[in-house]
Design brief:
Chain B: GO terms for molecular function: protein phosphatase regulator activity. The complex is a heterodimer. Chain A is an all-alpha fold. Chain A contains seven helices and no strands. The longest helix of chain A is centred in the N-terminal third of the chain and has 13 residues. Chain B is mostly beta strands. Classes of the chains: A mainly alpha, B mainly beta.
Chain lengths: ~140, ~450
């Protein structure tokens, strides 16, 4: 990324600085990786915008709370993660809206409740427990 | 200076252990059902029993068969002893949240009588399970037939004393205690105290102390939740009781620190007695620094003198007497440092690897990607990389060490970093408390390896 800058602003970075940055990136692979990441996601580190990463983590079922700083850097305030839903209807509506923005790679949508009607307990997705014996015991 | 490993391979020659494939459990097919993903592995205190938990909420317990003294080619094999559904999926209607049935941790209680007891936990609820054997049944009742039907009392003309007769072994698992409703956040650890009466459970922000007999209350002993959630900067990632001191426990954080607490100091252990933290060179700091310093597992040595922590790239051994830096650091897969960008994008950087000690605290083990796992000998400073794969499944053949080529010319038999399969991760491993037998969990298979017995 610093090389890109050099092309655009050749006058600003002196030869010494250029060598310094390149040296540092050579010594610190982490820094080079960081530069790569920031080049791909320029909005990283800024305030809320992309909720793509949040949805990704929700789908993975990883505890959101485990990485508060990560969420900030991925552009989401803790506030939105901690969002309390007024009731299950509110929750399902919010979930339905989010599902519209989902990446195509996710699996078939098992949630039959849309955001259009007030759900009842019967409508909520019932996850069946595994009645099958573990294959480790097979 | 005590520090990182040099090269050097562990297998071959002298007193080095030679690891051999022993058994593999689980389905062969590549299509892995989510419920079959193994989420925890744990030997009991004698090593005779080996428990696994999976994402489907099931527990499978294997038992080591008694050695045949005459033909002891190897130590006894592990066969299925009991299996049961420990946790079911739940829906929290109040919070509109699904509660996964995935078993996060299993911890065995030391055996006190004929039955075995273990604690298993999902994100919210801990359960105490009793596993007991039944190999006799009473026969010869006066009022009942053998099949249980009641006899017509008028047909009873003589009396007999019922006796116990042998029957086929039946292993029964029953839930004896359910410890619920004490955790707002996801439980990541449980640890049984050396007093064998109490245990702790830890979630992202709090640690609770329970008595094994009492389910309707628990004491909060650590609470790091800030008054204003926007001030939250770190979370609890693991916790464990000291193996000998019943008043001492540690908990690790997402910022790479470990706090040791003494329950005698105060009821709420928010102020640590010791803080273990390795100082970081600020000029080395990058976007990834904090994420990769997050500790995914902490384990005391059997001796209680040391503890081991696992962060994304390394394993560190700490002397409890020295807080300012670890006494040993072992690089697990340093070659990943130049791949952090893609590991962040595919979320692998958040994988939580566990680690374990061998019985004598001389060797430590942890998992990696591509179904590789690593062992570090603390005495010889040698390390080895092995692979859990069905290709090596001839019993008693010594496993071939693996080597990853970070860059440049790849030698024969080496694998390049870019060819590693990051979906094949070994997060859970366990070491038999007394013998050189290890259990290694790939995504949905359980491998058992033993050292070569001559």
């Amino acid at each position: 990324m610093s090389q890109k800058q050099d092309e655009e602003n050749p006058a600003e970075e002196t030869g010494e600085e250029k060598q310094d940055t390149q040296e540092k990136e050579g010594i610190l692979p982490e820094r080079a990786e960081e530069a790569k990441l920031k080049a791909k996601y320029p909005s990283l580190g800024q305030k809320p915008g992309g909720s793509d990463f949040l949805m990704k983590r929700l789908q993975k079922g990883v505890s959101i709370i485990s990485y508060p700083l990560l969420l900030e850097s991925k552009g989401i305030l803790m506030k939105s993660v901690e969002q309390k839903y007024f009731d299950s209807g509110d929750y399902n509506m919010a979930k339905a809206k989010m599902k519209n923005k989902q990446l195509p790679s996710t699996g078939p949508d098992k949630n039959l409740v849309t955001g259009d009607h007030i759900p009842t307990p019967q409508d909520l997705p019932q996850r069946k427990s595994s009645l099958v014996t573990s294959k480790l015991a097979g | 200076q005590i520090g990182s490993l040099g090269g050097g391979c562990m297998s071959g020659g002298g007193n080095d252990i030679q690891w051999c494939f022993s058994q593999v459990k689980g389905a062969v097919d590549d299509d892995v059902a989510e419920a079959d993903i193994i989420s925890t592995v744990e030997f009991n205190h004698s090593g005779e029993l080996l428990a696994t938990g999976d994402k489907g909420g099931r527990v499978v317990i294997f038992q080591q068969e008694q050695e045949n003294k005459i033909q002891s080619h190897s130590r006894g094999e592990y066969n299925v002893y009991s299996t049961f559904q420990s946790h079911e999926p739940e829906f929290d209607y109040l919070k509109s949240l699904e509660i996964e049935e995935k078993i996060n941790k299993i911890r065995w209680l030391p055996q006190k009588n004929a039955a075995q007891f273990l604690l298993s936990t999902n994100d919210k609820t801990i359960k105490l399970w009793k596993i007991s054997e039944r190999d006799k049944r009473p026969e010869g009742y006066n009022l009942k037939e053998e099949d249980g039907r009641y006899r017509d009392p008028t047909t009873v003309t003589t009396l007999r004393v019922p006796v116990f007769r042998p029957m086929d072994l039946m292993v029964e698992a029953s839930p004896r205690r359910i410890f619920a409703n004490a955790h707002t956040y996801h439980i990541n650890s449980i640890s049984i105290n050396s007093d064998y009466e109490t245990y702790l459970s830890a979630d992202d922000l709090r640690i609770n102390l329970w008595h094994l007999e009492i389910t309707d209350r628990s004491f909060n002993i650590v609470d790091i939740k800030p008054a204003n959630m926007e001030e939250l900067t770190e979370v609890i990632t693991a916790a464990e009781f000291h193996p000998n001191s019943c008043n001492t426990f540690v908990y690790s954080s997402s910022k790479g620190t470990i706090r040791l607490c003494d329950m005698r100091a105060s009821a709420l252990c928010d102020r640590h007695s010791k803080l273990f933290e390795e100082p970081e060179d600020p000029s080395n700091r990058s976007f990834f620094s904090e994420i990769i310093s997050s500790i995914s597992d902490v384990k005391f040595s059997h001796s209680g003198r040391y503890m081991m922590t696992r962060d994304y790239l390394s394993v560190k051994i700490w002397d409890l007497n020295m807080e300012n830096r670890p006494v040993e650091t072992y690089q697990v897969h340093e070659y990943l440092r130049s791949k952090l960008c893609s590991l962040y994008e595919n979320d692998c950087i958040f994988d939580k690897f566990e680690c374990c000690w061998n019985g004598s605290d001389s060797v430590v083990m942890t998992g990696s990607y591509n179904n590789f796992f690593r062992m570090f000998d603390r005495n010889t400073k040698r390390d080895i990389t092995l692979e859990a794969s069905r290709e090596n499944n001839k019993p008693r053949t010594v496993l071939k060490p693996r080597k990853v080529c970070a860059s440049g010319k790849r030698k024969k038999d080496e694998i390049s970093v870019d060819s590693l399969d990051f979906n094949k991760k070994i997060l859970h491993t366990a070491w038999h408390p007394k013998e050189n037998i290890i259990a290694v969990a790939t995504t949905n298979n359980l491998y058992i390896f033993q050292d070569k017995v001559n």
